[in-house]
Specification:
This protein is of the alpha/beta class. The protein has 2 domains: about 130 residues, D-Maltodextrin-Binding Protein, domain 2 (3-Layer(aba) Sandwich); about 120 residues, Periplasmic binding protein-like II (D-Maltodextrin-Binding Protein, domain 2, 3-Layer(aba) Sandwich), CATH 3.40.190.10. It is built from 10 helices and 12 strands. The chain is globular and about 55 Å long.
Length: about 270
Amino acid sequence: MDRSASLPMYDWPELCSQTDQWWRVLAQCFSAEGLTQVPTGLDRDDDPHIKWRHPRLLMSQTCGYPLRQKYREMLTIIAVPRYNAEGCEGSDYCSMVVVRKNDGHLTLGDFNGRSAAFNGEDSQSGYSALRAVVAPLAQGGRFFSQTVKTGTHLKSMAAVAANKADVCAIDCVGWELAKRIFPDLVAKLSVIAQTPSAPALPYVTARSCSNDDLQRLRRGLLKSVEDKQHKDLRAHLLIDGFDILPQNAYERIEKIEKAAIDAGYPELI
């Protein structure tokens, strides 16, 4: 297998064209830094988890939760995007706790005994962050009457809008993108709270990547946001810049999870 590249986290069908353009910009920047065997396009063939495990991965983007739980020995952080979205501060992000606009329940506490939708148990933004804000309200380790696993943030939003669930947590970058791409869906929803912040979804490479190539990747990313020619493309994807963060920056995600567990709320129930 040759080196591969993927950007699966916000690669919605409605954004694939812009994501492909963004990769071409990055590939040119990486090649200009002397990186070799740079893929000409993004690989969308396999489950992202398969790519994150492969030693020939050149670059991808992952969620901070699986990075800490499953892939800390397999992946190295290249850089962390700074997104231009409400709820972001520098390279930190949070989730928006979203309900139906016409529900009439104004605070998270009002949803005791109601239902929640989440994208997956390995999601910081859709699962662990929601668990964190619910933990102080839970009694006997329980808050919701039921939970619904949807597979994606968009499906969680649709479930709430369609009255199949009452609340969900959507990462603030995805929420900002949805406001532009799916205005009719967002118009049915309302934000009632924000979750604790954590470092945003990092760009990563295989741990087997040499230090020289890692530095080339980092220099290429930093130069990609200096190019004014692609300013509109970056704005469309909400990318404002990159920060170089150490691996241990994501320990904050583990602390968020531990606080919920210590409060007697280990699962989103």
